[in-house]
Amino acid sequence: MLSLPIDIPGTAYNRAIKGGEMVHEELMERSDDEGQDMLSKMLFVRDENGERLNEMEICNNIIGLLVASFDPTSSTLTTVINYIAQLPHIYEHVLKVEQMEVERSKGPDELLA
Fold this sequence. Notes:
The protein is mainly α. The protein has helices at 12-30, 38-44, 55-68, 72-86, 88-105. Helix 3 (55-68) packs antiparallel against helix 4.
């Protein structure tokens, strides 16, 4: 399927532009309202330097969730892997717990691989 970046009604590009505008409007509406949904969490989360996600990062995260949401399993895994990648202390904890589980499941002469 070919999609040219020409803004003609009914094209994938036109729908993408409209979707981007809708996301932008939603971001502007919620910029002062801390809710419990995923978008609100992305608006108010801060990184290790105390900085909030910028608009492009939030849009990319939302688009990633929308693309992955065709399959609930992939959506869940995408979200979990994304947060683990962004939070090194959580990654270290998960790695440590997983390594202990693998060690427990293996015999004394078995390789951990």
